[in-house]
């Protein structure tokens, strides 16, 4: 039995870490969680033990720290494992986006071949971290029993098809301000049942508008319910958000509004008035679209067994046993970033 620390700085990390906590507990280990920033005040269900601050985290001396953020507290003991907070949706250039290497992690657990190959190339160049393709813990509940969570979200729809709407917080990419009137009209018609959600960083006024649509034809879904909502829905309407990739892994149709990098598996459009027509296409997908969805799903996340969390734990143990190779010392830039993280977390004490 060993102690492990789960680290997050935003609420959207909770559904990434929860399946991993369950896998740790099933293996007989103790899972602890430390949530800061936008995730502060949130919690994972017992028996996960919540850490109150940096001194507690240092005293814990965990065997590994699993981070669903871009960063990790380097002054805490244990292997530093990157889980990622989303798929690569090409919001930014590789150097500034998904493939940015900050020198903080010992192991990158990649989601599928599309990201594994680039990270292995980076690992060969830098040699201070290892890479293991594991799949993404967040998607484990998509492919295994979820205690009826998805069925409960779908139940109010009755026999109607279900549409999920999700939007990024990045203002220049967000569909939420542009599609509100059309979605409100669709909800009012009631032909389909809508599950509505927004990125936690979206403006409060936008949240209020979408929450107000809840009723007999729609429900607002919190971030922690997002995976269940994806499982419950038949079609997704979104923009340039990683939810598009998460949903497409199920090989279900996705309708995207002004996606930054539209792909063959997406039904992309740029005029809000076309939403209804795009939904009609999504609910009657042709063979070409179904093939594109399957190919994309296999490239980004081929694992459909609901056991990515177990693969993350196995890869971490392989790293700790030295089976993933000898790692170089972290670059000088990592030391500087480590000091910045200490300042942000308010800790200048001794590291473990």
Describe this protein's structure.
There is one protein chain. The protein is an alpha/beta fold and 352 residues long. It is 35% helix and 15% strand. The chain contains 12 helices and 13 strands. It has helices at residues 14-26, 54-60, 113-126, 149-154, 176-189, 204-211, 226-232, 243-248, 275-282, 287-300, 308-320, 332-345; strands at 3-8, 30-35, 49-50, 64-67, 79-82, 107-110, 130-133, 162-165, 193-196, 218-220, 235-238, 254-257, 266-269. The strands form 2 sheets. It has a 7-stranded parallel sheet, with helices on both faces. Strands 10-9-8-11-12-13 form a 6-stranded parallel sheet, sandwiched between helices. Helix 1 crosses helix 11. It is globular. The chain starts with a strand and ends in a 7-residue tail after the last helix. The mean pLDDT is 93.
List keywords for this structure.
352 residues, alpha/beta, 12 helices
Entry summary:
It contains 12 helices and 13 strands. With 352 residues, it is of the alpha/beta class. α1 packs across α11.
Rounded Rg: 21 Å
The largest sheet, given as strand count, sense and whether it forms a barrel, is: 7 strands, parallel
Structural class: alpha/beta
Q: Estimate the helix proportion, in percent.
A: 25-40%
Arrangement of strands in the largest sheet: 3-2-1-4-5-6-7
Shape field: globular
What is the total tally of β strands? Answer: 13
Which regions are unreliable across 5 or more consecutive residues at pLDDT < 50? none
Mean pLDDT: 93
Gap between N and C termini: 20 Å
Q: Tell me the number of helical segments per DSSP (H or I, 4 or more residues long).
A: 12
* Strand content bin: 15-25%
SSE pattern: EHEEHEEEHEHEHEHEHEHEEHHHH
